[in-house]
Amino acid sequence: MITVIIIMSRLLALDSMMILFAMCWDLAVGLRKAKQRGEARTSYGVARTATKLLTYFGAFGVGSCIDVLLHVGKLWELCGIEVLHSVPVVATIIAIFLCVIELMSIFESADSKTKKRLAKATNAAVHIANKEEFVELLARAIAAARENTKEQ
């Protein structure tokens, strides 16, 4: 019994380290992408990561509890799958799922985010300014550019 608990604990610790590694990797890549896009890196993103950490490890903890109950209830032996009696199956499946989510987040295209934001800004500008305002703003921009060129 003690041997089984030690084996399960080691596997659960490995699963949780993999989840934590994937989350840290995603955070580092997200910070790098934000820096490349020239966005401010505020505590909001880190706070989102902390919330995600609590959510992920909450789900992982519930999966671990289910695995312990499966072991205590000897469900694997009853089903004839005795080889799984010391393996945290549910928690490992949850850990794999969470790592896949983080991997998808890492490879998410930063360009598509930038394009979406630019499209939203363009649409907002079009709705705000009518033709006369747009012509006036354009004329001011051209005049300011000419002044900057003369000064240099």
Question: For the terminal residues, how far apart are their CA atoms?
Answer: 81 Å
Total number of strands? 0
What is the helix/strand order? HHHHHH
Structural shape: rod-shaped
**Percentage of residues in DSSP E strands:** under 5%
Would you tell me the overall average pLDDT? 82
Poorly predicted spans: none
Per DSSP, the total helix count is 6
Number of domains: 2
Please describe the structure with a list of short key phrases separated by commas or semicolons:
2 domains; 6 helices; 152 residues; mainly alpha
Quick rundown:
With 152 residues, the chain is mainly α.
What does this structure look like?
The chain is an all-alpha fold. It folds into 2 domains: 2-108, no CATH class; 109-152. Helix content is 84%, strand content 0%. It contains 6 helices and no strands. The protein has helices spanning 2-36, 43-72, 75-78, 89-106, 110-128, 131-151. It is rod-shaped. The N and C termini lie far apart (81 Å). The mean pLDDT is 82.
